[in-house]
Automatic annotation (TrEMBL):
Organism in which the protein naturally occurs: Denitratisoma oestradiolicum
One Gene Ontology CC term in the entry: plasma membrane
UniProt GO MF annotations: aspartic-type endopeptidase activity
One Pfam family matching this protein: Peptidase_A24
Segments crossing the lipid bilayer: none
GO biological process: signal peptide processing
Family, as annotated: Belongs to the peptidase A24 family.
Keyword Hydrolase: yes
InterPro entries recorded: Prepilin_IV_endopep_pep (IPR000045), Prepilin_peptidase/N-MTase (IPR050882)
Protein name: Putative Prepilin peptidase
EC number: 3.4.23.43
Amino acid sequence: MISPYTAGEAFALGCTSVIAIAIRLNMVQLALFSYSVLLGLFVGEIISLYILAVPLWLARSWIDDSQMTFKAYTRQDKLNYLRRFEEIVSSLSPRCVHCYELYSGSRRLALLRYLFHNNSCSTCDFRSQDQAFRPQLVTIIGTTYVVVSGGLEPKTLIGLFQLWLLIAIAFISVRQHLVPNVLTYPLLWGNLLASAFGLAVPIESAVIGAVVGYMGQWLILIISRFTIKQELVGYGSFMAGAAIGAMLGWEQGCLAIAFAYILKLGENMVRYRKLLGPTQLVPLGHWLVMSALSIGMLHG
Ligand SMILES: [Zn+2]
């Protein structure tokens, strides 16, 4: 049990904070607040499913590749992976990973499944360890913050688009030690487009930010490869750096990326008592996301 609260206490705490917030906000803001919580719940569910599906999806492509080259996996392995992949992703419905039964009722949403059912399956009683409620909770809080602070403006939509992609990047980075291009490309292109239409940082700053965010980290890789014979960073973080550079502009983008490296070195010091852990500076994506979000929030 990670949470020190029981489900009932957590629910009471949630209700109290909603009432406290309601007193401080007027009715329009209250409506905006409620809708953004619902939006966060819905999008958070999709993000948490997507995060669960990524390893299966990667396994599927690895199996496809390895079958072509080594014929290493049995047909049954492949069928098992395919079955889980199709079941979880294609229906966009969460299932018990033990008995494959569809979750129903309030078990359908990751956060409610965690709060009220202890992540257990109603059919086989298996307790899932997937912690899918975490990205959902972060999405709800972030969505509410962006909508309530931004109001009904085009910039709020852009902010939500950035936030949702960044949340998925952070959680996949921690779980899988990689940052999928399928998330960083839309973030990069979306940010460049927003700048081109004058809805974000100036386009010059965004383009320079994208180049510097990528090339700066690429230089770190090249230098570390030739000096200490280790590859300190992964290619996924280059693309994440480019997307963040385009999002914040080159000055704040560089600051965010540098800050992320400092945080990662700090994490390694705390966990391994040395600057480079067993996987060097990987995963880095969650620190990139956290520093980008904090710097983005500080500057509106
Ligand atoms: Zn089950």
